[in-house]
Amino acid sequence: MYYLRVLSALCLSLAMLCLPLTAAALDGVTVVLSEEGGAYAQVADKLRAVLSRNGGTVSLPVKVISLMEGASLRAEQGQVLVAVGTEAMDELAKKKLPQPILNVLVPRAAFEKTARQSGRLGDPRNFSAIYLDQPWARQFALIRHALPGRIKVGIMLAPNSSELATALSAAAKAAGFVAITETVDGEADLLPSLKRLLGECDVLLSVPDPLIYNRNTVQSILLTSYRHQVPLIGFSPSYVKAGAIAAVFSVPEQIGQQAAEVIQRLAADRRLSLPQPPRYFSVGVNAQVARSLGISLDDEASLNNKLKGASEGEP
């Protein structure tokens, strides 16, 4: 009888080691940073602050490690992993770990590509994300409130973006706009494509695609659109500072707050929330660019309030 009890206990222990988090208690969070410092660290700091707050919904220890340390991660019961940035996401995806993985500060297209390539696209409850991209409805709402009367929205897309183009056209139509897309086949084609597009649209909407919008191209895009007197809607504070007339974006602390809330729900529901856009956001405007273009623009607080009202019906 004694040996039977020992054998039963051993089998139970082994079974517990094999259980997914959905059937076990959550007792810690490991955050893997694509790069140390900057926005990546700000997300981690906010996540840790919320999850370690006394009196909070869930209090959990948060360990922050580098991308190099993340390469040596092993299966560990009761842990959830948070990948901050695309490099961390790709590293964790290829390791095939059983822990749930929440990816943040990643573009939706990059997340879906990695999920597809790693065979995890059909497992959103264990491989999920908070996208970097704002919902299209929110971006079109910004255009409506910041630039009323401008309905022809130009958008440059990378090759193989047919699904995105279809989604954009549908979202634009639903919001009362017309989406005019131009495919950019390579860096040499960027300015010719942009000039064609600027001849057809009255506002340019940028998307977080590094093949088109990067440190080597941003100044050329901004200057060319300015010379054509077409305002550009950016996707980050840095783009507004550089010359975009306005942008709606989520700062790292807002993403960290949302990530903490997803993990708190995971502790209660035993499964990750589905991939989702940012819940919290801010609006930035470049008043100097607006004046130079002869555009009367509401201030940031006013636009932010209008967009919050428009976002109440979003998932």
TrEMBL record:
Superkingdom classification of source: Bacteria
Signal sequence extent: 1-23
InterPro entries, sorted: ABC_transpt-TYRBP-like
Transmembrane regions listed in the UniProt entry: none
A Pfam entry, by short name: ABC_sub_bind
Swiss-Prot/TrEMBL keywords: Signal
Protein name as it appears in the record: ABC transporter substrate-binding protein
The organism of origin for this protein: Sulfuricella denitrificans (strain DSM 22764 / NBRC 105220 / skB26)
Lineage, broadest ranks: Bacteria, Pseudomonadati, Pseudomonadota, Betaproteobacteria, Nitrosomonadales
